[in-house]
Structures are given as C-alpha cells and as structure tokens.
Design goal:
The chain is α/β, with parallel strands linked by helices. It has helices at about 1-10, 25-35, 75-90, 105-115, 140-155, 170-185, 220-225; strands at about 35-45, 45-55, 60-70, 95-100, 120-125, 125-130, 135-140, 160-165, 195-200, 210-215, 235-240, 255-260, 275-280. Strand 3 (about 60-70), helix 3 and strand 4 (about 95-100) form a beta-alpha-beta unit. The protein starts with a helix and ends in a 23-residue tail after the last strand.
Length: about 300
C-alpha cells in the first residue's frame, strides 16, 4: 500500500503546500486502518490501487490517499475501487462520504463528479466533495429477505429496473420472490438460469414482473437477444447477475448487492446473515425515501 501511494502521488504535478502522502509509512497506514478501513486493489497479484476510509466524529466517512499505481492507470481500477469503498463504508454504518480534491487538479474533481459526488464547500487548497452512500440493510434470514423484497415492491413503478448481484446462493432469487409477492405476481418465481427470462403477470393490477438471469451471458450484446427493450417500459424488470451487462437497460435503476460474508466488511453477523446494499441511480429515485426499507427485514415474526 505504501508503494502504491508513494508512486501515485509522486507521479502527480507538484502542489503547494505539498501532499503529506509522501510521509506515509507502513506504521502510519496501519494506524489509519486500525481507526478505519480501506480498499487494496490487485492486478495479476500486484498491488494496484488504494483507498483509505476513515471515520469522522460526526459519523461521516472520509476517503483519503486515493491512489492508482502509474503503471496501471487507465484500466478502470479507480472506478472499481470507488464503488467498493462506497459499499464498504455503507456496510460499516456510514450514510455519507466526503473527500478533499485539490483545486490544482480539475480532472480529478470531474472524475468524482462523474461518479455522483457534488461540491459541498470550498476549503483551503481545494473543495470538499460529498455523496450519499448506498443504503445498507442487515437481513438475518431468507424469510426476512422475502419481506424486504415485498416492501421494496411497494416503492416500484412500471418501467423500474433492478440489477441484483451477489454470490451463488446469496439470495437474489429470494429477494425477487419477495418483490413478486408484493406485486401479486403469478406463478412460482424460480431462477430462470436456463430459460434466461420469465414473465410473471400480476393478479392485483400491479405491473408485470420480468425476471431475468444474466449468469450465462458474457456481454451486453447477448442481452439484446432477449428483446427486453420491448418490455422494460411496461414491466418491473429484475436482472440477476446484471452488473456490467444490463446497465444499458435504463439510466434510472436500483443496483442491489447481497453480501454473504459480512465479516469481510467488519460487520457483525454470522454465516446466515446477509448485508444488502441498495444504490439508487438516476433522477427517478431522487425523491424516493429508500430508508423506509430499513425495518422491513426485521418487522414481524419469521413465518410464511
């Protein structure tokens, strides 16, 4: 981590006052990680990028020492790290993140703004950029996952798109079953791995549920063969394994990740617990209060 930070900051044009990144040592970084957490990216086994996530007394997370090794830049490492750091901070209980961007580097400011950050205030030598973090919800059981999906269904409208990600067995289909329950969807909702998509009309006048499994697809062009463009506007579309493939279906969407190993993110919980993070993308969700979902996974008794 020290090597990546030193190499990245030394490759930048000099600034006045200079960054303190050159003074980082293994000991100072270890102290930062004890107080907070961080992301370390590898490429071919080689350390490639770093983001340190530090807590502030007011409950806001701070990103610092954001670095990509000069030899490995222009490969999307920074974007991937930022998304991972946002998920990490959300799982650790933070609702907002801030960072300092130096005024000498307008391209860096533009990078963050392109990823949803906005200028909060001007400070000495730069600006503070801020962004709300994804909503993070602990889900203790599969029944609770269904409950969460059913509550989410109450917020959904015709044309909404959900991309669901997570390891095999994480609970993507279980969440979709809950969405189907909330929509009054007909037929058993099972993973459409082999048929790729299933259509579930609503018996209560809600929109049709289009359930898609992109596990066997390797590119967005293969998704085109399903002709989803013809159905998206009139349906609620849930795409399992859709990350990196189905974003083109809609500019406005919910990106849901289900984490099966919360211990990896220093979150309390056992092997049966999931952590669900929900990231709202696009203007459709600006005025929707997703925080109402927080209690959905814990309301009521665990029974069907």
């Amino acid at each position: 981590m020290v090597e990546v930070i030193h190499s990245a900051f030394r490759a930048r044009p000099p600034v006045d006052p200079p960054s303190a990144a050159d003074a980082e040592t293994a000991e100072t970084l270890a102290d930062s990680l004890r107080r907070g957490s961080g992301i370390l990216a590898h490429v071919g086994g080689r350390p490639a990028g770093v983001i340190i996530v530090l807590p502030r007394p007011d409950g806001v997370a701070t990103f610092t020492r954001v670095s990509v090794h000069p030899d490995l830049q222009r490969h999307g490492i920074a974007s991937s790290m930022v998304a991972a750091a946002e998920e990490l901070a959300a799982i650790r209980g933070f609702e907002r993140v801030e960072l300092l961007a130096r005024a000498e580097f307008p391209d860096f400011i533009a990078f963050w703004q392109h990823r949803g950050f906005v200028v909060d205030r001007t400070v000495a030598h730069g600006v503070i950029l801020t962004k709300p973090l994804p909503l993070a919800i602990k889900v203790p059981t599969s029944v609770a996952m269904v409950r969460l999906g059913a509550r989410l269904a109450q917020l959904l409208e015709r044309g909404d798109v959900i991309l669901a990600a997570g390891d095999l067995g994480a609970g993507k289909t279980t969440l979709t079953q809950g969405i189907g329950r909330g929509l009054g969807s007909e037929g058993p909702i099972i993973s459409p791995t082999f048929v790729l998509s299933r259509i579930h009309p609503s018996s209560i006048g809600r929109p049709t549920l289009m359930h898609v499994d992109a596990y066997r697809l390797s590119a967005a062009t293969e998704l085109d063969d399903l002709d989803l463009d013809a159905t998206v506007a009139d349906s609620i579309t849930v795409v399992e394994w859709g990350s990196g493939i189905a974003e083109g279906l809609a500019e406005d969407r919910l990106e849901i990740d289900i984490w099966t190993s919360p211990a990896d993110f220093s979150a309390a919980g056992d092997d049966s617990e999931r952590v669900v993070t929900i990231r709202a993308v696009g203007a459709r969700w600006h005025d929707v209060d997703l925080s109402v979902l927080r209690g959905a996974a814990h309301g009521g008794a665990d029974h069907d």
